[in-house]
Design brief:
It is built from eight helices and 13 strands. α1 runs parallel beside α4. With 299 residues, it is α/β, with parallel strands linked by helices.
């Protein structure tokens, strides 16, 4: 029996590749007799780099080529009645690189606001900041405990809907679709004091989340040029700029701030020279690709 047949799927979508693996089937359907399937990689066409069309083309190819897809479809065809509409037999969790969306940390008093009001605030921020029509965006948000900060994420509604349509065509129901940063923040273990700068480095994007007194304070991001991700002195310089733009508490200096480094296996020495300390938490193997690390978050 194929290890992929009807297995839940985990998909990591980077900027240049898509990695597809299987997820644990859950405690009610253990499959201890089957070893885990090796994740498969599918390149996003170079001529469509950075485009939604390129992402959807690669996702379509990945779902068609994933072992077990044809077998699952054949099994479903046999079991369903003639002319009966087929429903996807595989379930998928998807995590995308933050290149494909936007984030923000908004500060204010959100304690008495309803979900619709919070959504409108987030949409207004993304519309004003990026000049994007709010109707074209899909927004997700979370209010920090205490109600004084709002973490919001936005992605293209067309991309969101297109991925679901490609999934259905590939016999997959996408039950969870998220950007990478919220998943990484959920896994971040901050142990040093209440003030920190969290830096997440990917191929095309460097993101910063400022934490002050153990609460979200600000978000900022910096696009990276080829070669920047592996250049620790350059990244440390950018981190200093991100700190200066993100610190919200008067008198809070970078020399008093601990910096946490996530993503690329970056030399902490240049950061230690600019900040109080530089900590690199335990992370997935540094030789794994960004898309594979995102797939692991989806698992």
């Amino acid at each position: 029996m194929s290890r992929w047949l009807n297995s839940p799927v985990a998909i990591g979508i980077g900027t240049r590749e898509i990695v597809v693996g299987t997820r644990a089937p859950g405690r009610w359907h253990p499959r201890k007799h089957l070893p885990p399937a090796e994740p498969l990689s599918f390149a996003i066409p170079e001529d469509l780099y950075g485009t939604e069309a390129g992402l959807l083309a690669a996702l379509r190819a990945a779902l068609v080529a994933t072992p077990g897809a044809d077998a699952a479809e054949a099994a479903e065809t046999v079991e369903s009645a003639p002319h009966e509409a087929k429903s996807p037999t595989r379930n998928a969790h998807v995590v995308l690189d933050d290149f494909w969306g936007n984030h923000a940390i908004l500060r204010g008093d959100f304690r008495t606001l309803r979900a619709r009001e919070l959504e409108e605030i987030a949409l207004a921020h993304f519309t004003d900041t990026y000049g994007i029509d709010g109707e074209s965006l899909l927004v997700r948000f979370c209010v920090q405990q205490g109600g004084r900060a709002l973490f919001a994420s936005a992605m293209s509604r067309a991309l969101h809907d297109g991925m679901h349509e490609v999934g259905i065509a590939g016999n997959v129901r996408i039950s969870r679709l998220k950007l990478g940063l919220p998943e990484m923040l959920n896994c971040a273990d901050i142990v040093a004091g209440g003030d920190a700068l969290l830096i997440f480095v990917a191929e095309e994007l460097m993101q910063a989340v400022m934490v002050e007194q153990r609460g979200w304070a600000a978000y900022d991001a910096q696009r990276l040029f080829p070669g920047d991700a592996g250049n620790a002195p350059r990244l440390a310089e950018l981190a200093e700029q991100l700190f200066e733009r993100s610190a919200t508490r008067a008198g809070f200096k970078r020399e008093d701030c601990t910096i946490y480094l996530f993503g690329y296996d970056t030399d902490p020495a240049p950061f230690e020279a600019r900040f109080a300390a530089a900590i690199r938490p335990t992370q997935p193997a540094p030789d794994s690709s960004p898309a594979r690390r995102l797939m692991e978050h989806a698992q």
